[in-house]
Specification:
20% strand, globular, four-stranded mixed β-sheet, 14 strands, 7 helices
Length: 219
């Protein structure tokens, strides 16, 4: 923990040793409710396919994360809401997750990959599906533009289960930190659910505030 925090907080502020997953609002549930569901179940469900070949029946579903530096979390919070969870990169790598790659639309390597995926669209066991979810093809698609490289996205194929001790930190508004800690402590005391003893981070904090939260957690 100290090594990872130090590498983030000293001079490499453009890098992060963590990845984050934000809980989005759905049609029937708020981002807050969906985040609590993830934390209670200790599981992030893979609900959609991504990357080259997304939409094909054989394309596996994945969970998305971001490697965005923690003092820039507001960029994602503005799009998805202020609730989420962070993990160390090593955890995802140990589960065969990792950062995605980009093959820009209409480039020769993008065309080759698309052809391989098309041939395997009916075969979920084809080895191309070990690669395709990790390769996006940014570009213009009719009236729509797809350019999201700034998210520094990571993915994990399949649902992502975890223990409360795997969480490097939780993301939520500062004014709810105290009540959330009380909620988790009570759940643990009554054997009703997990207790998250990691740092809590407001996605709109600056670098010094984030660093202070990690330092406080180590005392």
């Amino acid at each position: 923990m100290k090594k990872l925090v130090g590498s983030w907080s000293d001079t490499w502020l453009d890098m992060s040793p963590f990845v984050v997953h934000f809980a989005k609002a759905s049609e029937k549930r708020s981002a807050y409710d969906n985040c609590l569901g993830i934390l209670a179940d200790r599981r992030i469900e893979a609900r959609a396919s991504f990357g080259t070949g997304k939409g094909y029946k054989a394309s596996p579903r994945s969970v998305c994360f971001s490697e965005i530096p923690l003092h820039y979390l507001s960029r994602l919070a503005k799009k998805r809401g202020p609730y989420g969870i962070g993990f160390r990169k090593e955890l995802l790598v140990s589960r065969d997750g990792g950062p995605i790659m980009y093959a820009y639309k209409d480039t020769s390597h993008a065309k080759v990959l698309s052809k391989l995926v098309s041939k395997a669209k009916g075969d979920p066991d084809d080895p191309i599906w070990k690669i395709a979810p990790f390769v996006d093809q940014p570009g213009e698609y009719g009236p729509k533009k797809y350019f999201y490289e700034w998210e520094r996205e990571w993915r994990h194929v399949g649902s992502f289960g975890f223990q409360e001790t795997d969480a490097a930190f939780l993301i939520m508004p500062e004014d709810s930190h105290s009540s959330a800690r009380g909620f988790f402590e009570e759940a643990e005391r009554d054997n009703l659910g997990p207790n998250y003893k990691c740092p809590f981070i407001d996605p709109y904090w600056n670098a010094e505030q984030v660093k202070a939260a990690f330092n406080e957690a180590q005392t």
